[in-house]
C-alpha cells in the first residue's frame, strides 16, 4: 500500500483476501498491537466503537502516512467483535511513491471460513 491509502482500504484488502464479507460487522485497528486497547484504537467508519465519541477519527480518515509507521511495526486488526477475528499486520516496507492498487505480499496459512457452522437452508 502507498502512504496515500487509508486504513479503510487495508480493512477492505484483508476481507478480500480472506473471502470474508462485511455486512454489518464492526472492526477496529489497534496500533499498539494490543487487542481492545481503547488508547490505540482506530475504529471502523461504518460501525464506530461504542467507547469512542462520534467525533473520533475512523479508519476512513487515517492514511498510512498519518500513522507514522516504522519498519517492523506490528498492529492488530480485529473484525467482527462477536466472532473476534484477529489479524496481526506488520510493516515490511514503506513506499514513498503512490501505488494504484494495494497488493498482499504475504499471508500465512489458509484463510478460515467466516461462519463455518452456518448451513444455508433455502
Description of the molecule:
The structure is a single chain. Helices cover 10% and strands 16% of the residues. With 122 residues, it is mainly beta. Strands 2-1-3-4 form a 4-stranded antiparallel beta sheet, with no helix packed on it. Strand 3 and strand 4 form a beta hairpin.
What would you say about this model in short?
The protein is mostly beta strands. The protein is built from 1 helix and 4 strands, in the order H-E-E-E-E.
The overall average pLDDT, rounded, is: 84
Q: How would you spell out the order of helices and strands?
A: HEEEE
Radius of gyration: 15 Å
Number of helices: 1
Number of strands: 4
Shape: globular
Report the helical percentage: under 10%
Name a few traits of the molecule.
122 residues; 4-stranded antiparallel β-sheet; mainly beta
Describe the SSE topology.
Elements: H1 7-18, E1 27-30, E2 41-43, E3 74-79, E4 85-90
Antiparallel strand pairs: 1-2, 1-3, 3-4
